[in-house]
Amino acid sequence: EAGVTQSPTHLIKTRGQQATLRCSPISGHTSVYWYQQALGLGLQFLLWYDEGEERNRGNFPPRFSGRQFPNYSSELNVNALELEDSALYLCASSLGDRPGTDTQYFGPGTRLTVL
Amino acid sequence: QQQVKQSPQSLIVQKGGISIINCAYENTAFDYFPWYQQFPGKGPALLIAIRPDVSEKKEGRFTISFNKSAKQFSLHIMDSQPGDSATYFCAAEAGANNLFFGTGTRLTVIP
To answer: What is the Cα–Cα distance from B16 to B63, expressed in whole angstroms?
Structure first.
């Protein structure tokens, strides 16, 4: 069974540009989560999508946005990139049917570098 | 503000030794405490998890100890092996599928 996949593996942008990151969940999973892993800060929760709807949002500015498509894949958009947005962006998926105990399975991440 | 505090930042253990990683939290609404293991170039993978109604959970060489009154929990890796060398993250969740992660512990097991 294929795991969570993310693309691209690496992304280099300059300040002010927009970045689009993509995630395909495990087959059968309806929930998709996005996390930012910056050096020394651990993983910070960004967004949770389930059944096409945004269910929860972490403490990030509105220029971090996303969406979930009918096939449950997801896209994370980061507008007006800043140097501190450089990080590993991780996507996770889960079955989405048991909030609070639903195991999240992570993809390998997209390394975003902002120059 | 870091919701889950994790220590140490790095840990070096001899093969066969016990690795201990500690986490603490303040939010009493947290009711699910997973530990994740992350190898370089990979995403985190769930290792073991506990709920606050038990004080200990063991799976093979990995044990979580949970102290509800102290709001602390720890991961013990018995008979540590070089293959255990990875970064370990504790996390906590309060039911909104919003995991709060610790800052990670880089474990190195020396042969």
So the answer is: 15
- CA atoms of A75 and A66, how far apart (whole Å): 5
The CB-side HSE value for A80 (13 A sphere, CA atoms) comes to 5
In tens, the pLDDT along A97-110 reads: 665 557 889 999 99
8 A C-beta contact, residue A102 and residue A31: yes
* CB burial of residue A13 (10 Å; 0-12, 13-18, 19+): middle
Assess contact for A48 and A33: CB atoms under 8 A.
yes
Q: Pick A48's closest partner by Cβ from B91, B94, B98.
A: B98
Which one of A35, A37, A45, A55 would you mutate to disrupt binding with B, by most B Cβ within 10 Å of its Cβ? A45
Distance from CA of B15 to the nearest CA of A (A): 26
Chain A residue at shortest CA distance from B4: A42
In which residue are the tokens 């009154």 written? B69
Please give the DSSP secondary-structure letter assigned to residue B32: B
Q: What letter does residue A62 receive in the DSSP assignment?
A: T
Q: Each residue's pLDDT tens digit in chain A (115 positions)? A: 689 999 999 999 999 999 999 999 999 999 999 999 988 778 899 999 999 999 989 999 999 999 999 999 999 999 999 999 999 999 999 987 665 557 889 999 999 999 9
| Kind and range of the H or E run holding A59 | none
